[in-house]
Amino acid sequence: MKSDVEELMPRLLPVETCDTGEDFNLNEPPRNPQEYLRQVQLEASLCPDVVVAKIDPKKLRKKQSVNVSLTGCEAAPQGFSPSLKWQRQQVSNFSEIRQSISKHRQHWSGHALDDNVLMPKQDAEEQWKKFCLGENVYLNSPPIDPGTEDQGLDYVKATISAVLEYLINWFEEREFVPQLGRWLYALLACLEKPLLPEAHSLIRQLARRSSEVRANLESQEDERLSPLNLMICLVARYFDQNDLADKED
């Protein structure tokens, strides 16, 4: 009679039933194909039928649901959208940066943070906002002198998508600032493809919010126009969200 396991996973090769009394040393390499298959069979027989993963509930994210909106971006006012040539150049530059990050990722992963750097815990959303944006921006205080502005760190220890979510949540309720743009660009550069569903939803949310802010700009000379166009361009052109892409005027 076949075992329950064989009913679900029928044998593909004609291998004699392994006698558990046979003297097999699993630590030694097999001497022939038949012995190899018998060793595999013996190893399989030693595995439990059911394995239960030990999961720490404290490490699970509170928000597990992912809602992907299919709505597009707001159309740019006349003269506010970038040319296709500009978009292609930004995508090319971004691709080179991502390749550089990928090349050096393993090297930097082995380096510890400076002793004077205290990183927020991964699930500390408000602390991450303050860490990335600076206390003045986070508290809506008057801007400090650009010459003394804290440029922050160029490496992030927490999950990329988690910090990206925190900053996009902040952006949904506030205006675009240069500190936010730098961090969003860096996080997008570190976001690995193919995208997880959560990351897919986040970057679309970023593009839509950027288009909303852009639609309310009063002048083409506004310093926020170029970085807002860049966010929309990267999401649409690099991450293949083509329905969000700007078309030439």
TrEMBL record:
Quote the subcellular location field of this record.
Answer: Cytoplasm; Nucleus, Gem
GO terms of biological process kind: spliceosomal complex assembly; spliceosomal snRNP assembly
The domain of life for this entry's organism is Eukaryota
In terms of InterPro entries, this protein maps to: GEMIN2 (IPR017364), Gemin2/Brr1 (IPR035426)
Keyword Ribonucleoprotein found:
no
- Keywords tagged on the record: Cytoplasm, mRNA processing, mRNA splicing, Nucleus
Its GO CC terms? Gemini of Cajal bodies; SMN complex; spliceosomal complex
Subunit relationships: Part of the core SMN complex.
What family name appears in the similarity comment? Belongs to the gemin-2 family.
What role is this protein assigned? The SMN complex catalyzes the assembly of small nuclear ribonucleoproteins (snRNPs), the building blocks of the spliceosome, and thereby plays an important role in the splicing of cellular pre-mRNAs.
Q: What is this protein called?
A: Gem-associated protein 2
Taxonomic source organism: Oncorhynchus tshawytscha
